Amino acid sequence: SHFREFFSTATAYEPYPYQERLAAQPWPNFLDVPTGLGKTAAVTLAWLWKRRVLKEAGTPRRLIWCLPMRVLVEQTEKSLRSWLDKLGMLGNVGEGKVSVHLLMGGEEDLKSWAEYPEEDMILVGTQDMLLSRALMRGYGMSRYLWPVHFALLHNDAFWVLDEVQLMGAGLATTAQLEAFRRTFPLSRSAHTLWVSATLNPAWLNTVDLRPHLPAFSALALNADDKQLPQVQCRIAASKRLASSI
Question: Is the dihedral of CA 86, 87, 91, 93 positive or negative?
Fold first, then answer.
C-alpha cells in the first residue's frame, strides 16, 4: 500500500499489520499494544497520513501527545521531528508545514502554537502542562491567554494519552474532559485515544464518561501481528517483565 511506503520513508521500517489497520480504519478509543512495538509511530504516522495525504475532514489538525514523564516527552519529540523531517513535512509555525511544540516546565516557547490555530501541528507535553490548559488554568502562562489555549485544546484536537497506567489522577481527568466534549457542542470535532500496554477500560469509568464506554472500540494485535517473530519476542519480553515485578 502507499501507506507502507510512507511509513518506511519516515521510520526505515516496514509497518506491522496493526499500524496499517490504524491508518486505514476509523480511530479507535483504545490502543492496546505491548511496549516496543511502535505505538508512537503508529498513531503519529496514521494521523499524518489521514490529515496530510488523504486530507480526511474528520481528522483533527492538532495532534496532542500527553505524557506522564518529562523523559518520555523528550524521547517522543525527538522521534516526531525525525519522522516529519524524512517525509519533508517538518516546519516552523507560519510556514504551512507541520510544526512540533514542546509543552514542558522550563521551556521558553509555550505559546507560539496558539498563534497559528489554522495550521497542522503536534503538541507534545507533560500532563500537568496540557491538562491545566484544558482546564483553563494553564501553568506557566498569562491568565489572559487561558481561554485561548482552552478553546484550541478542545476543538479540532486529537488527544493521545500514552502510558496511562502512570497518569494517576490525570487519567480520570482525561475521561471527564472527553465526556464533556461529547456533551457540549464543539465548533470542530475532537477525539481521545488512550494508549497502554496494560490498559484497563475500568479506569475510565467516571460518572460522565460511563454511559459512552459500551460503544468504545479498541485496536489490539491480531493473528497476523502475532505470527511475526519480532512481535513474538516483544510479547515474551513483556510477559517476563510482568512476572518479575
Answer: negative
CB contact set of 142 (below 8 Å; sequence gap of 6+): none
Rounded-to-integer distance, Cα 141 and Cα 111, Å: 8
Q: Which residue in 136, 80, 138 sits closest to 111, CA to CA? A: 138
Name 90's Cβ contacts closer than 8 Å, sequence gap at least 6: 81, 84, 97, 98, 99, 100
Predicted confidence at residue 1, as pLDDT, reads 61
Mean pLDDT by 10 residues, the chain (245 residues): 93 96 96 92 98 94 96 95 98 96 87 94 97 95 95 98 92 97 93 91 94 95 92 84 72
> How long a stretch of residues is the chain?
245
Q: What is the pLDDT of residue 245?
A: 65
Rounded to 5°, angle at Cα 3 from 23 and 50: 45
Q: Which of 137, 136, 179 is nearest to 159 (CA)?
A: 179
* Measured distance CA(170)–CA(185) in Å, rounded: 23
Q: Residue with C-alpha cell 490555530?
A: 117
18 phi, psi to nearest 5 deg: -65, -35
pLDDT confidence of residue 217: 95
Q: In what order do the strands lie in the sheet with 191-196?
A: 99-103, 121-126, 62-67, 157-162, 191-196, 30-32, 218-220
183/193 Cα distance (integer angstroms): 18
pLDDT of residue 241: 72
What is the spatial distance between Cα 218 and Cα 195, in angstroms, rounded to a whole number? 10
Query: What pLDDT is recorded for position 201?
Result: 86
Beta strands, E only, 130-237: 157-162, 191-196, 218-220
